[in-house]
User: Fold these one by one.
Assistant:
Number 1:
Amino acid sequence: MSCIVTIGEPFWGRRLGSAAAAAAVEYGFETLGLRKICASVLPSNDASARICLGLGMRREGRLRQHIEKWGEVHDLDLYGLLRDEWRGDDRAADAAVTG
């Protein structure tokens, strides 16, 4: 399952992307019972990266030369958020690090 959030330039700066992404994350975890939610962002898209980080997502890596868009090949940055992290329960993440 995937979800794409696109905000037209006349509406930039109104936090609509943040609100839409937050609603999608809540729906994914609360209604669909997902364990993890991922996002892929063009490295040049600072606004989308800020939205991901603002949701508590962690940058997990970069897929090099992964997609073609606008006639050019682009990398994609990957972000992820686990259900336990979203709930504020970082014990699962801490256990994986200290493991």
Note: Confidence is low (pLDDT under 50) at residues 91-99.
Number 2:
Amino acid sequence: MNSLHEAVELAIRILRTDIPDKNEVAVKILEVATKTQAVSQHIDSYLDELPAKIKRARFDLKMSQAQFAKYIGVSQALVGQWERGEVRPSFKTVKLLAKVLS
């Protein structure tokens, strides 16, 4: 489901059918869609803050971009792009950063 709006439309269509337990099914669809939207917003918020977090972590480690890049196994240019918010790290890299920086 792409949006909460689509979930509402689907729930309404289900409520208009003869499906057994249609009320429970419609409620579950709306619950899942609402939770999915909340998680998506949380992830977006985290990713928006990631450039500053990466830069702060590097400063806390007292490393240059080149040193930090070598430490985590990427190029200096990529670290700079992350810090400027030009490129977002992959999910795999975010997991690595979390592990390395914790």
Note: Residues 22-60 form the longest helix (39 residues).
Number 3:
Amino acid sequence: MKIYCITHEKMDFIEYLNLIPAGVGNANFPSNYLDEKEGENISFKNRNYGEISFHYWFWKNRLNKCNSNVWFVKVSQFMILTLSLLIV
């Protein structure tokens, strides 16, 4: 199981938790981060949609290349937005 952690800025603890870091927004991220600005994306809409723009990027650039089931983790009826988790 792979767990992705979506963030607007580099956070060192993400790697220590064995999460796959994914960067959204205008910041520049290290090479080990997935960056929503690459490939087919709607990163220009990140200001309005936040981390959801990464979910679009993931769907268009990662899921179209494989046949896997995807589950979005919800906590108490609200999707985690500050550190969204996407389990594949």
Note: The chain has one domain: 3-87.
Number 4:
Amino acid sequence: MHAGIPSDHGGFDVKQGWLAQLRATGHEVVDCGAHSLVPDDDYEGLGFLGIELNEPRNRENAPVISAQNGRVAVRIIRTDEELMIARSVCRVLRLGAVNKSVEV
């Protein structure tokens, strides 16, 4: 089985674990990024879209991380990234459903 697994910085550690487990069981897996744990790199180069971040809010994982006078509001949506990655991997490998209650 050949699969690619992506993540943003929030799911980086989870993705690394999944990559190791899948490779250890003989699956060919491609790491689609992020390739390092640099939280600020998720939003680089988005100024042309009018996105400006409030860096202190971004570091605090505040609900809204956009600059107060920016043209675009950037909101953080809480999710269980480990569950989402697990479901994606199971779909790719056709292992069936993964169920877990999401705590946000």
Note: The two ends are 33 Å apart (CA to CA).
